[in-house]
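New to this. Please check this record:
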Amino acid sequence: MTDKFNFNKGLLQLEEIINKMESGELSLEDSLKYFEEGVKIHRQCHTALTDAEQRISVLSDSDNYSEEKPFGDS
């Protein structure tokens, strides 16, 4: 069983990677390692956002939120 990706944790990990890389103290090899990890996490974040957008779209379509209605009408 795979663990579900935690978007907020992914963002924190990306921030840590960026800070390490911006420090200028990493070797080329370590920089490449962190870059690869950052790309992987970025892709996971992008996928999570795309999935959330699709879920919102499906829920909105089924509730007809795309149609304008006067305030107070059900």
Notes: The chain is about 70% helix and 0% strand. The mean pLDDT is 87.
